[in-house]
Design brief:
Shape: elongated
Helix content: 25-40%
Number of helices: 12
Largest sheet: 6 strands, mixed
Number of strands: 19
Radius of gyration: 25 Å
Length: 444
C-alpha cells in the first residue's frame, strides 16, 4: 500500500508539470525602419564594400588559416596549445591589450574612436577554441576543392579564422568604429566544458561589466540568428547500498532497482512542447558482476528547455523522483544491512535566456540578413534557439546573438565533419556577420 501511494503521487506530480503555463515565445517582427536604414547606409558605404572586397581577395588565405587552426588539437580542457597559437595570431593583427585570462580565454582589442555612449563599454566578437574530440584524434584536414573535412573544422575553427579576416578587412578598408571591439577565443564551450570560458569572462574577467553587446560566431549559416539560449541541467545520480551475493543476499535492497524506478518515473514526466523542453538518460554504469547485488550504480541525465521556468520545474520534479525511488526501494526490500542512498550531483548547468527580438541588436541583424538577399522561412523568420556561449550573457540580460561564419557546415561533432567554402556564398555569408558587427559597433 505504501509503495502504491508513492507511485501514485509520483505520477500525479509528473502530470502536473504539463499544466505549467509559460509565456509564448516572441515572434520575429520585420526589422524597423530605423534598423533597416542603419544597415542600408552601412552596406552601401564604400568602406564596407572595400572590406568585403578584401575578404573576397583573401578567400584562399581564410581557408589556409582555417586549416592551420583545425590542425592544432584543442580537446576538452586541453585547449592551451591552440589558445597560445591564436593569441599570437591576434597579436600579429595589431590588436591592443593581447592576453590570456585565468581560465584560458585569449583576447585582444581593436580600439574604437570612443565616440559611443561614453560608458566605456565594448562589443565582443567571439568564437570558441575547444572541440569535442579527445587528445590523439586525427585532425589532419582533407581538402577536395571547396570541401574541407576534419573534426572541428566548422565547429568552430572556421569561425576563429573568420574573426581574423574581419580584422584585416576593417584595417584594409580604413574602417573606424565608435565602440571598441574585443575579439575573443573562448575555452570550454563544448560538452563538459559547460561554458567555463565565457562564464569566467562574464563573472570574473576584467571586461565583465563593460560589454554593450556580445556575439558568438558558432556554426556557418549566416541566415540563422540564435537569440534564444537553450538552458540545460545535467546530473550524475548514484544509488548506493550494502550489496551482496545475488542468491545468498537475496531480499536486500538493490540500487539497480532504485535506479530503474527512478528511470521509469522520469520517463513519464509530461513536459511542454512550447517552450520546447526535453530530457534524457544518456549514460549508465556500475555494479560488480552478474551474480552480485551492486553496491553502487549510476546514471547521467540531461534536461533542457528554451524557458528558465520550464527547466526549473523539470529539474525540481526530477530531484524529487531521485529520492522517491530510493524510498520506494527501501520500503520494498530489507534494509537490515543498510538502506539505499541517493546522491544527485550537478555536472552541467547552462542557463536559459533570450535576447528580445525587439532590441536594436536583433533588428539590425535581421536587416543585415535581408540586405544580403536571404529570405525568411517560418513564423520566427531567422530566429533560433541553441546552446552556445551566448547563453551566459543572455541569462544576465546582456544583448547577445550567435551568428554564422559563412559557408556550409555538415556533420558537426563527427570525425568526418565537412565544411564547404564555395567562394561566392562564403563571402556573402561573411559579409552578413561583418555588417551585423559593424552596425552594433557603430561604423563611422
Amino acid at each position: 500500500m505504501k509503495v502504491t501511494a508513492i507511485l501514485a503521487a509520483a505520477i500525479l506530480a509528473s502530470q502536473a508539470l504539463s499544466l505549467f503555463a509559460f509565456p509564448a515565445l516572441a515572434q520575429a517582427p520585420a526589422p524597423s525602419a530605423a534598423a533597416t536604414g542603419v544597415v542600408q547606409r552601412l552596406t552601401t558605404n564604400e568602406r564596407f564594400k572595400a572590406a568585403v572586397a578584401k575578404i573576397d581577395a583573401e578567400h584562399e588565405r581564410i581557408i589556409e588559416e582555417t586549416i592551420k587552426i583545425t590542425e592544432i588539437e584543442a580537446p576538452p580542457f586541453k585547449e592551451e596549445m591552440r589558445a597560445k597559437a591564436y593569441m599570437e595570431m591576434l597579436r600579429a593583427h595589431g590588436l591592443k591589450d593581447i592576453e590570456m585570462d585565468a581560465e584560458g580565454n585569449v583576447m585582444g582589442v581593436r580600439k574604437g574612436t570612443g565616440q559611443a555612449s561614453g560608458d566605456g563599454k565594448l562589443i565582443v566578437m567571439s568564437a570558441h577554441l575547444d572541440t569535442v574530440f579527445p587528445s590523439g584524434t586525427n585532425v589532419k584536414v582533407k581538402r577536395e576543392g571547396d570541401v574541407l573535412t576534419a573534426p572541428g573544422i566548422g565547429d568552430d575553427s572556421h569561425s576563429l579564422a573568420t574573426l581574423l579576416s574581419y580584422i584585416r578587412a576593417m584595417d584594409a578598408a580604413g574602417i573606424k568604429t565608435k565602440n571598441d571591439i574585443l575579439f575573443v577565443g573562448t575555452v570550454g564551450e563544448e560538452g563538459a566544458g559547460d561554458l567555463r570560458g565565457v562564464r569566467h569572462f562574464f563573472t570574473k574577467g576584467k571586461y565583465k561589466d563593460k560589454v554593450h553587446a556580445f556575439f558568438s560566431m558558432d556554426g556557418t549559416n549566416p541566415a540563422r540568428l540564435v537569440n534564444g539560449a537553450v538552458g540545460s541541467k545535467r546530473y550524475r545520480v548514484t544509488y548506493s547500498g550494502p550489496g551482496g551475493h545475488s542468491y545468498g543476499a537475496f531480499g536486500l535492497v538493490n540500487p539497480a532497482f532504485a535506479m530503474a524506478e527512478a528511470s521509469s518515473l522520469f520517463s513519464r514526466i509530461q513536459v511542454p512542447t512550447r517552450p520546447k523542453t526535453t530530457f534524457s538518460i544518456g549514460v549508465v554504469g556500475g555494479g560488480t558482476s552478474v551474480n552480485s547485488i551492486p553496491d553502487a550504480i549510476w546514471m547521467e541525465v540531461d534536461m533542457r528547455s528554451e524557458h528558465p521556468a520550464a527547466l526549473a520545474a523539470l529539474e525540481k520534479r526530477f530531484l524529487e523522483i531521485v529520492q522517491q525511488a530510493a524510498a520506494t526501494e527501501n520500503a520494498s526490500r530489507s534494509t537490515k544491512e543498510g538502506p539505499i542512498k541517493a546522491e544527485a550531483k550537478l555536472i552541467g548547468d547552462r542557463p536559459a535566456g533570450s535576447t528580445d527580438p525587439q532590441t536594436d541588436l536583433v533588428q539590425m541583424a535581421t536587416a543585415a540578413i535581408l540586405a544580403h538577399g536571404y529570405k525568411p522561412q517560418g513564423t520566427n523568420a531567422f530566429l533560433a534557439f541553441s546552446s552556445t556561449d551566448s547563453n551566459i550573457p543572455m541569462s544576465m540580460g546582456i544583448p547577445a546573438l550567435t551568428i554564422g561564419s559563412g559557408g556550409v557546415g555538415e556533420r558537426s561533432h563527427s570525425l568526418d565533419e565537412r565544411l564547404t567554402l564555395e567562394k561566392v556564398e562564403s563571402v556573402r555569408g561573411k559579409s552578413v556577420s561583418l555588417a551585423i558587427l559593424l552596425a552594433a559597433a557603430g561604423m563611422e
